[in-house]
Design goal:
Helix content: 25-40%
Shape: globular
Number of domains: 1
Number of helices: 7
CATH topology: Chorismate lyase
Number of strands: 6
Strand order of the largest sheet: 1-2-3-6-5-4
Structural class: alpha+beta
Order of helices and strands: HHHEHEEHHEHEE
Largest sheet: 6 strands, antiparallel
């Protein structure tokens, strides 16, 4: 029997390589893991750095504008839960998390748990028994916005990872994780 060796296609590896090449940067192993994990980064941060905490900056219901509606595959004006939070260790922010959640696609129980603001969206979905598929939509580098500069105390460019949690073929949560390029270099 002759063996053939075939490279395994990995779109995430290719996205990260393209990001490094386009911006002339070299990402650390930890950064690559955080960008490519197919789900929440909180458990990894907890393992790497010890107990991390969640701080809810804002969460409220709003009507989806055209851009958000298109991203979620819902009608413009549909009610969504907007959440932005920080995962932090001691007083240092580690990851800024922005999520959009179409209210019509989540049970009242899930919405109520989200509104408590005590835990991450991924953990709530896991505990609720909703089987979800997580798909990474985009990995990119962005300029720091004023809020990110204030939160992280840096004007560094920011690494971003956008992913969708899909339940029964529909996006139930769209999340974007953001952190400075200078973080997680070890």
């Amino acid at each position: 029997m002759s063996a053939k060796c075939t490279a395994i296609k990995n779109e995430l590896r290719e996205m990260i390589a393209r990001l490094e090449q386009e911006h002339n940067i070299k990402l650390s192993t930890t950064q690559k893991i955080l960008l490519s994990i197919n789900g929440p980064v909180t458990p990894i941060l907890d393992v790497l750095y010890g107990e991390v905490r969640l701080f809810m900056l804002d969460q409220h219901f709003e009507n989806a504008d055209k851009d958000i509606a298109d991203l979620l595959g819902i009608d413009e004006g549909e009610e969504i839960l907007y959440r932005n939070s920080i995962v932090f260790k001691h007083s240092k922010p580690l990851i800024y998390v922005l999520s959009y959640i179409p209210k019509s696609r989540c049970s009242d129980r899930v919405i109520n748990k989200l509104l408590e603001g005590k835990t991450t969206t991924g953990r709530i979905m896991n505990e609720s028994g909703h089987e979800t598929i997580r798909i990474i939509n985009d990995i990119s580098l962005m300029k720091a916005t004023p809020i990110l500069t204030e939160l992280f105390k840096t004007t560094d460019d920011m690494l971003t990872r956008e992913y969708s949690m899909i339940h029964k073929g529909e996006i139930v949560i769209l999340t974007k994780d953001i952190y400075p390029l200078s973080y997680f270099k070890e």
